[in-house]
Each structure stands twice: as structure tokens, then as C-alpha cells.
Amino acid sequence: MDLWYMLIFTVFPYVCLTIFVVGHGYRYVTDRFGWNARSSEFLEKESLFAGSVIFHWGIILTFFGHAGGLLIPQRVFDFFGIDARGHMAVAYWSGLAVGIAAFVGALLLWRRRLIQPRLTAVTTRNDRITLAGLAVVIGLGLFNVVFGHYNVLYTLAPWIRGIVTFTPDAGLMRAVPLSYKLHVIAAWALLAFSPFSRLVHIWSAPIFYLFRPYILSRRRAAL
Ligand code: HEM
């Protein structure tokens, strides 16, 4: 049993992280022109807009929620007067809102690829795995929010911090309910798959575009 915990909650995450890092480097070197979101906007716009906007807002806020809520230890929240109860309440309501958005958005994106013939024709197996993977990971996360009601602050959260700081402790996952375990296992697997999919576009978000200087266009002066 200990060996299984060690394999699933220590070895597996590091294998996935290694594939994630090396895979992105490899993809960048070997397929630089394929490094994009492969937008299908020119084939179909209407349903893309709703699905994509809802999905992207939901998933990006979910990402920041996970980073803030799990990577920052509870003692830091305690210092600022937010006890575990308050922390869990904020996590519940915000997780519910952004989780529903990400899940509904992913289903809308998946649906349009199933029912629009022009999109079905260009949808690859890789696209189906990506959207299905996202739907499974987000679906399990949302299931945990709605039905789990499990306090992750003293088990799952320190476990993930241990992975990030190279001090893993698989034993912390022992008391964690199965649906939470499945959520993190599916998330690690998706992380390992992502360098080989269109998800690479995440790392090319045009953030600097927001801060770039204005481009001034002037009329040619009348001669
Ligand atoms: C970091 C900021 C991000 C930017 C600027 C961005 C931008 C884009 C753009 C321009 C597209 C193509 C057009 C469209 O489908 O809307 C796209 C598609 C997509 N993005 Fe993102 N994205 C970001 C983050 C993410 C994240 C965090 C995920 C998931 C973890 C994600 C998953 C997807 C998927 C699955 C598609 C394909 C949708 C489809 O055509 O079926 N994106 N993204």
C-alpha cells in the first residue's frame, strides 16, 4: 500500500512534471510554427465566442484560485485574520462560480466540435483528448466542490506544496477522499499531455501587448 501511495503521489507527479518541462522544450524546438491555439474562428464564430469566453474566464480564474488557495500555507491566511473556516467558505463560493463557468465553457467548446460539420472535419484525436481531459479534470473538481465538502488545507494542500518544494510526502494523501485523488491524478496526466497539444498557447499569452506603447499613425502632411 505504501509503495502504491509513493508511486501515485510522489513518482507520478514528478514524471508528469518532467514530461511537462522537457515536452515543452522539445515542442518549442521542433514545432515552433505549430506553437499556437489553432483557432477555429475563421470556420465558425458564433458558438466559439460564447464557449471560449466562458471557458477561458472560468479556467484562468480557477488557475489563480488553485495557486493562491493551495500554495499559500494556511498560517499566512491566519496571520491576516482569515481562519480555515473563512478560507474554505471563500474557496467554496468562488470555486463554484469559476468551476461552473469553466465546465460549461468546456462542454460548449466540445459540443460545437461535435455538431458543426466544418469543425468535425478538422477536429483531430488530439483535440478530442484535450477537451475531454479538460472536461474530466474540471468536472471532478466541480463534483468535489458541490459534493465533497472536504477540508483540503491540512492534507492535500501541504502535499502539493511538498511536490513543488521537492519535499514530497505521499502519506498526506492517505485521508483524502477518492474523488479528490482522481481529480489530482487526472490533472497531473493532463499536465503531462499538454505540451503535445494546442494547450501550449497558454505560455504565449500576449500579456506584454497590454503594456505596449501606442502606435501613432499620422496623416501624411499636405504638401
Ligand atoms: C493564458 C491566457 C490564454 C489565452 C490568451 C488564450 C487564448 C486562446 C485563443 C486565442 C484560442 C483560439 C480561439 C478560441 O478558441 O477562443 C484559444 C483556444 C483554446 N484554449 Fe486558450 N487561452 C489562454 C488560456 C487557456 C487555458 C489556461 C486553457 C486550459 C487549461 C486553454 C484552453 C484552450 C482550448 C482547449 C482551446 C481550444 C478551443 C477549441 O477550439 O475547441 N486556454 N485560447
What does this structure look like?
The protein is mainly alpha-helical and 223 residues long. The chain has a single domain, classed as Transmembrane di-heme cytochromes, Chain C (Fumarate Reductase Cytochrome B subunit, Up-down Bundle). The chain has 8 helices and no strands. The mean pLDDT is 95. The chain binds protoporphyrin IX containing FE. Protoporphyrin IX containing FE binds next to α2, α4 and α6. The site of protoporphyrin IX containing FE has 20 residues, from α2, α4 and α6. Dimer of heterotrimers each composed of an alpha, a beta and a gamma chain. Alpha and beta are catalytic chains; gamma chains are involved in binding the enzyme complex to the cytoplasmic membrane. Keywords: Cell membrane, Electron transport, Heme, Iron, Membrane, Metal-binding, Nitrate assimilation, Oxidoreductase, Transmembrane, Transmembrane helix, Transport. It is a multi-pass membrane protein.
The gyration radius over C-alpha positions equals: 21 Å
Structural classification: mainly alpha
Number of strands: 0
CATH architecture: Up-down Bundle
**How many domains in all?**
1
**What is the typical, i.e. mean, pLDDT?**
95
The helix/strand series, from N terminus to C terminus, equals: HHHHHHHH
* CA distance, first residue to last residue: 85 Å
Organism: Desulfococcus multivorans DSM 2059
Pfam families: Nitrate_red_gam
GO molecular function: electron transfer activity; heme binding; metal ion binding; nitrate reductase (quinone) activity
Subcellular location: Cell membrane
